[in-house]
Amino acid sequence: MDAQEIRKKYLEYFEAKGHKVIPRALLVPQDDPTTLFTGSGMQPLIPYLLGEPHPQGNRVTDSQTCFRAEDMDEVGDNRHTTFFEMLGNWSLGDYFKEDQLAWFWDFLTKTVGLDPQKLYVTCFIGDEQTGVPKDTESAKIWKDLFEQEGIDANTVEIGSEADGYAKGLQDGRIFFYDASKNWWSREGLPANMRDGEPGGPDSEVFYDFGTAHDKKYGAHCHPNCDCGRFLEIGNSVFMTYRKIDGKFQELPKPNVDFGGGLERIAAAAIDSPDVFQISLLKPIIDGLEKLSGKNYEKHESSMRVIADHLRAAVFLAVDGVRPSNKQQGYVLRRLLRRAIRYAFELGIEQDLCEKVAPIIIELYENDFPEVAKEKQAVLEAFMREEKIFRQTLRRGLREFEHLSSDQLKGETIFTLYDTYGFPVELSKEEAFKREIDIASDADKVFDKLMDEQRQRSQTASAGMFKGGLADHSPEVVKLHTTTHLMYQALKNILGDGVVQRGSNITAERTRFDFSHPEKVSREQLDEVEKIVNEQIEKDLPVTWKEEKTDEAFKKGASGAFGDKYGDTVKVYTIGDEEKPFSREICGGPHVEHTGVIGEGGKRFKITKEEASSAGVRRIKAVLQ
Ligand code: ATP
Ligand code: MG
User: Fold this and answer.
1) Whose CA is nearest to atom 30 of ligand 1?
2) Rounded Cα gap, residues 104 and 109, in angstroms
3) Paired strand residues for 234
4) Alpha carbon nearest to ligand 1 atom 8, residue
5) Is 328 in a helix, a strand, or coil?
6) DSSP per position, 231-254
7) If you average pLDDT over every residue of the chain, what do you get?
8) Which long-range contacts (CB under 8 A, 24 or more apart) does 436-444 make?
9) Atom 13 in ligand 1: which residue has the minimum CA distance?
10) What is the pLDDT of residues 34-50, one digit of tens each?
11) For the CA of 265, the nearest atom of ligand 1
12) How far apart are CA 89 and CA 72, in angstroms?
């Protein structure tokens, strides 16, 4: 069964179970200026899950187009795309676990035809701190469902993700994980929930591709392992409780919120761990192979990026976004330019959008009439953007001719990169094409110049301060101040061994590298989140002063490892001058007071923690 058919059958299945099929919400939320994109099926339904009556009744279903800019760095792996469809069904105080789990199971095994032997599930283990009980009901329902297929489903107690890597599969089918994996609330863990907030356990279904475990991720494989053997294909949230005066009370009419990735279910249906093999993505990859004359197997990651970015771009444009320098328009521009650059490196030097966008439109125009309707406008906007960007690339090429004579030197590669944004790989390929020699020390020289450049922009001396942000958009500035808060919070929780090793901030997220010898647990990350959100709520003033470098360090200001500073530095203080929350050497700019970060109900959230290199951890975090 192909992806288009799975979408259709899913909606039909839940319609037959009394659900009203509702239209997708646009990718750009219409009545919520604080959120750039619709990122889940649940998002547009929040008011109804909180109690407002839905005009279509208490059973609704849809396929919600989602865009997650924060997943952009993940694209290239086997299962993440920035744009995807989330199949959803909701019980607004109507049916509960028994029906939900049985229906989804029935849909997967009977309608889609997945082999039950390849399905594994997870349930909530309970939370001692807040006294929320283990979800034995869901586990019991699953046990019976497996049994009907002749499968004796063992239950296994895991706990945290780290426990999973230590304990492994242990011949289990039903796995109990803690709140970091199997609990939903808008604030994360049960302990972090604000008064009045709803939350509850969830239960996830995983498909087993049977691929070999990669020990890079941990000693043993388990359903929530990142090695790619198990793919999460659906998540049923049972909104069971409301927190009142710090206690969990059962809602009189609990809700069900289900979300399952269409692309991932479709990948399971063809038993391929690579989502780009499904019917909604493969034709785009085929088109790229034809255009470039290159093989997908040899260029997996870049072809995935191009296919994903152009598909996302088409849907953003259908929903009214146009390339620009701010907000959603900026994200669209980045998607297109990244796609064009990656394609350029594959040898596609013209007409990328003109050739590929129609393939994408064709895949969707039958099921989404708005795609057919916007076709011409989208193509024109993309071709205009491609023309502008190619001029930049071409200017780089012209300079290439000027600068390189019979040998391509590291200095030239650097100048092209630094001044024209001309990619390093392109310089080398260009040299190759023109049969120009590449100097043997080109890489070394380039790296050295890049290093010097980095030092220059970091060195603070006579009016030139470290760390000036390239992008001064309000989103980036907010995340910059947030990063200071996070740096201090990490020190508070993990100790003074935490030293910044690098950072990178875009409009969507902050990425922060720091020294720390081991994985940071979800509990510790939650503590960090809590501290940061508290500082945002306190609306602390953010001020700066120029200080003598040694004085600044004596007074406890933080800096980044390996940075060299001049005689005087700019020091940013968050909070009261006498007893500040954080003091950091930095070029700015920052928000004037931390409350600005939380405007529109935004909360700080850590989305990822992973190893960056030996002894260095990397965190990604967002405001949402
Ligand atoms: P992951 O840990 O794999 O990133 P998630 O925990 O972020 O997934 P949810 O937020 O629970 O996923 O979203 C519900 C469903 O949407 C998932 O079960 C998955 O099938 C799908 N999904 C989530 N993110 C992506 C993505 N970037 N690309 C494709 N499908 C996705
Ligand atoms: Mg994710």
Assistant:
1) 261
2) 9
3) 205
4) 232
5) helix
6) EEEEEEEEEEEEEETTEEEEEEEE
7) 91
8) 436/404, 436/406, 436/407, 436/408, 437/406, 437/407, 437/408, 438/407, 438/408, 439/407, 439/408, 439/409, 439/410, 441/410, 442/408, 442/409, 442/410, 442/413, 443/410, 444/410
9) 259
10) 788 999 999 999 989 98
11) 20
12) 27
pTM for the predicted model, two decimal places: 0.72
- What b/e sequence results for 509-527 when a residue is b if at least 16 CB atoms lie within 10 Å of its CB, and e otherwise? bbbbbbebeeebebbbbbb
Ligand 1 centre to CA of 261 (Å) is 6
Q: Which residue has the tokens 């990142």?
A: 226
Looking only at Cα atoms, what is the longest distance across the chain?
79
Which token pair is 313?
């771009």
Residues with CB under 6 A from ligand 1: 40, 68, 71, 80-81, 84, 86, 232-235, 259-261, 263-264
User: Minimal CA–CA distance to 587: which of 565, 604, 605?
Assistant: 565
Alpha carbon of 41 to ligand 2 centroid (Å): 14
Among 40, 264, 605, 624, which is best to mutate for testing ligand 1, by the most ligand atoms less than 8 A from CB? 264
Pocket test for ligand 1, best of 63, 74, 80 (most atoms within 8 A of CB): 80
- Residue identified by tokens 């599930």 is 121
Q: What percentage of the chain exceeds 70 in pLDDT?
A: 96
Nearest by Cα to 511 from 542, 476, 544: 476
DSSP state of 615: T
User: Ligand 2 centroid vs 80 CA: distance in angstroms?
Assistant: 8
User: Tens digits of per-residue pLDDT, 524-574?
Assistant: 999 999 999 999 999 999 998 888 887 888 777 887 755 667 777 788 999
Question: Above 80 in pLDDT, residue 235?
Answer: yes
